[in-house]
Amino acid sequence: MHWLKACDVQDIDVGEVRQIKNGDYFIALYHIEDGFYATQDACTHAVASLADGYVEDGMIECPLHAGKFCIKTGRAKSLPVSVGLKTYSVRVEGSDVYIGIEEAKEAV
User: Fold this and answer.
1) CA–CA separation, 96 vs 107, rounded Å?
2) In this structure, are residues 81 and 62 in contact, taking their beta carbons and an 8 Å threshold?
3) Is CB count within 10 Å lower at the N or C end of the chain?
């Protein structure tokens, strides 16, 4: 797996999401209470950027039609979304946040 340095820990406050671009990849990087998580950035319903969405209680709400996904698992949690998000491994080393970009896991 290739680890992409996404940002510094202090670049994203708890409760925020940020779009990370790497070539053709657009990844949403989240900082929630228990750590950092990453999913594909495009909503599976209408391809809106989840980095423009609203983070609350471990969920990301799509800014277009208000469908919700679990940030940790990528699972679709409320209509109109029904297909889960791809998730990426994240690790923190010192003050650096890395995303494993070659291996995405499909939500079940």
Assistant:
1) 26
2) yes
3) C
Q: Identify which of 20, 31, 52, 23 has the alpha carbon closest to the alpha carbon of residue 95.
A: 31
Answer yes or no: is pLDDT of 103 > 80: no
Q: Which fold has domain 3-105?
A: Rieske Iron-sulfur Protein (2.102.10)
pLDDT digits 0-9 by tens, 76-93: 999 999 999 999 999 999
The domains of the chain are located at: 3-105
φ, ψ of residue 10 in degrees (nearest 5): -75, -5
d(CA 2, CA 103): 8
| Strand order through the sheet with 76-78 | 54-56, 59-61, 68-70, 76-78
Measure the CA–CA gap between 79 and 68, rounded to whole angstroms: 7
